[in-house]
């Protein structure tokens, strides 16, 4: 993905210092933004014919040397910006109820892309969010400073959004983070502690006759599948966010205009139940 040429869909706003999508920017030089890679001033090209994108400005001396925009690096920067919105979440057997994120943290000489500690149970989590050419920190070092270690596949996310020979998907940073949450098990790997395979029936020492009797289908009746939960917001579509609370359509519709992030929306409707 690092060698694929992609029109620049993101830039950093000079007023807020936050990364924004091209759809959020004012047209032309009024966007008041700079390149994520080289800090060169950019202009927002939002023509009716071509794909909207940011481009390096050519009316200043400092823009004579343009850089190569890296979609992987852009995704890594966006996830670093948005991960602070993830304050209450469940991760396998662990629950995080009140966390504060720190970025690019150095703990005892170990560099961590994103680090958080739950103030209620002191559980700590380290997250790898690699740039395009990032070699990363060794797992042994990360395990020495955090209880849980995760790694986000930024290359896979960039490929999904900007696949070669296809039209790029233009999303706001908040929507990209929501996309990560939707594809969490596909794009996020739990490096520590690793999941253990359940013990198989064959590994258990039991009487052969008893084993044959136990594994008969009659001993394992299949219950009727529980009905899929409906979204508490629209009461129409299947709820896939917030552990069966909200549907994808309502999340994309209301996160941004009505809620700062997905966590706020989930907490709002969870408190109404």
UniProtKB/TrEMBL annotation:
Presence of keyword Transferase: yes
Pfam family, one: CoiA_N
GO MF terms held by the record: kinase activity
UniProt keywords, alphabetically: Kinase, Transferase
Domain Competence protein CoiA-like N-terminal per the UniProt entry, residue ranges: 30-64
Protein name, UniProt field: PI-3 kinase family phosphatidylinositol kinase/protein kinase
Species: Vibrio scophthalmi LMG 19158
């Amino acid at each position: 993905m690092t060698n694929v040429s992609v029109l620049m869909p993101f830039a950093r706003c000079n007023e807020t210092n936050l990364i924004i999508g091209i759809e959020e920017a004012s047209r032309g030089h009024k966007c008041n933004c700079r390149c994520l890679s080289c800090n060169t001033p950019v202009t927002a090209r939002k023509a009716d014919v071509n794909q909207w994108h940011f481009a390096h400005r050519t009316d200043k001396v400092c823009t004579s040397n343009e850089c190569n925009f890296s979609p992987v690096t852009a995704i890594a920067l966006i996830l670093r910006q948005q991960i602070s919105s993830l304050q209450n979440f469940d991760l396998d057997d662990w629950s995080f109820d009140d966390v504060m994120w720190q970025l690019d943290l150095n703990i005892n000489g170990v560099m961590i892309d994103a680090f958080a500690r739950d103030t209620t149970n002191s559980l700590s989590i380290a997250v790898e969010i690699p740039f395009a050419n990032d070699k990363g920190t060794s797992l042994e070092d990360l395990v020495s400073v955090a209880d849980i270690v995760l790694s986000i596949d930024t290359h896979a996310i960039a490929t999904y959004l900007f696949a070669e020979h296809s039209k790029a998907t233009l999303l706001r940073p908040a929507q990209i983070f929501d996309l990560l949450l939707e594809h969490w098990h596909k794009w996020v790997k739990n490096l520590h502690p690793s999941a253990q395979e359940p013990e198989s029936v064959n590994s258990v020492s039991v009487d052969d006759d008893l084993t044959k009797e136990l594994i008969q289908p009659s001993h394992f009746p299949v219950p009727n599948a529980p009905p899929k939960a409906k979204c508490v917001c629209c009461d129409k579509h299947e709820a896939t966010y917030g552990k069966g609370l909200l549907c994808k359509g309502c999340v994309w519709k209301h996160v941004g205009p009505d809620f700062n992030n997905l966590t706020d929306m989930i907490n709002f409707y969870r408190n109404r139940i």
